[in-house]
Specification:
Layout: H1 2-26, E1 36-43, H2 46-61, E2 65-72, H3 74-86, E3 94-98, H4 101-107, H5 128-133, E4 135-136, E5 139-140, E6 143-148, E7 150-155, H6 156-162, H7 172-182, H8 203-213, H9 230-246, H10 256-264, E8 270-274, H11 277-281, E9 293-297, E10 311-316, H12 324-334, H13 337-347, H14 358-362, H15 364-369, H16 373-382, H17 406-421, H18 427-444
Helix pairs in contact: 8-9, 17-18
């Protein structure tokens, strides 16, 4: 039945497209045809969905610009945009990319430099690590829509019942103990929720921070993969054990959005993930636990650096954009102080895109409704992409490695970690196979012999 509906939908779309072409051929062009059309590729995160909704304000102020949206799940977005810019396909005028892609793509000449921004945009107001992460040789190539580190969310009510006091800097050893204390599957509450969905930006984002704080790293200074080490084994065993003991069923299918839904509906005792979720979890309009959620820095194990990541979803203009001036007008609007105020006016200050502008964190109205603000800002400013591991690394990036090959390596390793989590492989098997994958990629691309 589903395939029939899909086929019928495709046929209807094609018929509609043919009619439009006939109308254009037989009569004067419509008003919309005279507009500049911008095709925007973005991720299906909550803040991006809000941006799409509020963009009607931009279109009202810019009636000569028509916005077309392509909203995709995170892994699919990365595949589509990477393929498009690498092949110079020109499908999109605005790309939603992250701190990983921005400098790599800029170095390859795939993005428009953003060195002619209007003075009122106030580039200096952008939080320094976020701005640096989107720059190449001092030039911005993407504008941050929101910035994030990672942090620990927990249910204050459940912790109080269990007599747990969360210290200023929690450890993973403590987290495992707390998970056992608040785990109550019979009541629909699981002690720990974590990303399990495979992908270099999904399960491997969290797992890499866990590896870092356990003293591990992806590569040594000679670019030799380091995945079959005790540090990786300790981290992955911890991850698999805590989710199998205290996690929800089907954890290997859960990414950011799935865990957000679980926590916001009261099904998670704890969750370690992106700081961007803080505003959503504290918002009573979208969270059933808004009055019960607590916030703390990401836990640490044996090494503090690399325990909390640094990321930003940002808007960039590919070199193949047919309308770069209109595209820049849109991305400056969508990442401006004006836009942040618009979200505050529409949905309250707790809902504004976090992690991009110093002025947001200095705003008394934001501070009044965002009990997590200082933790988020401190986590972002403390993230060190230059020194993510206990030993020196040839790469930058906390939860990623800043080489083009990492997308493929990270995703394949992520699939093996998901298999270990689902019980299809042992941790030892998964790490051995991951090491072989990484070695093969690094040898094929000339990093190692």
């Amino acid at each position: 039945m589903r395939s029939f509906r899909l086929a019928r939908g495709v046929a209807t779309f094609l018929v509609g497209a043919m009619l439009v072409q006939l109308l254009h051929a037989c009569g004067p062009q419509s008003q919309s045809a005279e507009k500049t059309q911008l095709t925007i590729a973005t991720v299906n995160n909550g803040d991006m969905v809000v941006m799409q909704d509020l963009s009607r304000n931009f279109e009202a102020d810019n009636p000569d610009i028509d916005l077309r949206w392509v909203v995709l799940e995170e892994n699919i977005l990365r595949q589509r945009t990477t393929t498009d810019v690498a092949s110079q396909g020109g499908q999109f005028d605005v790309l939603t990319i992250g701190a990983y892609e921005a400098p790599i793509w800029a170095k390859r000449g795939w993005l428009k430099p953003l060195d002619q921004l209007p003075a009122e945009y106030d580039v200096d107001d952008l939080i320094t690590p976020i701005r640096q992460g989107l720059s190449q040789d001092g030039t911005l190539y993407a504008l941050p829509f929101y910035g994030e580190s990672s942090m620990l969310y927990y249910r204050r009510d459940l912790f109080e019942e269990a007599g747990i006091t969360v210290p200023e800097n929690p450890t993973y050893e403590q987290v495992e103990q707390w998970a056992s204390q608040v785990n109550d599957p019979s009541s629909g509450v699981y002690g720990m929720c974590l990303r399990g969905k495979p992908g270099w930006g999904e399960n491997m984002a969290f797992l890499t921070t866990l590896v870092n704080t356990n003293g591990g790293q992806w590569f040594d200074m000679d670019w030799q993969p380091q995945l079959n080490t005790p540090e990786w084994e300790n981290a992955v065993n911890y991850y698999v054990n805590i989710l199998n003991e205290y996690g929800p069923p089907g954890a290997s299918s859960n990414g950011f959005n799935e865990n957000l839904a679980l926590f916001s509906t009261g099904k998670c005792g704890m969750w370690i993930d992106a700081t961007v979720a803080a505003g959503l979890l504290a918002n009573p309009e979208v969270s059933e636990v808004s009055e019960k959620v607590g916030f703390a820095p990401a836990p640490v194990a044996s090494y503090p650096n690399g325990s909390n990541w640094l990321w930003t979803w940002a808007l960039a203009i590919p070199q193949t954009s047919r309308s770069p001036e209109a595209a820049q007008k849109f991305i400056t609007w969508a990442t401006s102080k004006e836009y942040i105020q618009l979200v505050a006016d529409q949905s309250g200050w707790v809902s504004v895109p976090p992690g991009t502008r110093t002025s947001t964190y200095q705003n008394p109205e934001y501070q009044a409704v965002a009990p997590f603000a200082s933790t988020v800002l401190t986590s972002i400013e403390a993230a060190d992409i230059e020194s993510p591991a206990a030993s020196p690394t040839p790469y930058k990036g906390v939860q990623y490695v800043d080489i083009p090959e990492f997308q493929a390596i990270g995703t394949q390793v992520g699939q093996r970690m998901a298999a270990a989590l689902a019980g299809q492989d042992s941790v030892e098997q998964a790490l051995r196979r991951s090491q072989a994958v990484a070695e093969r990629f690094m040898r094929h691309t000339g990093y190692i012999e």
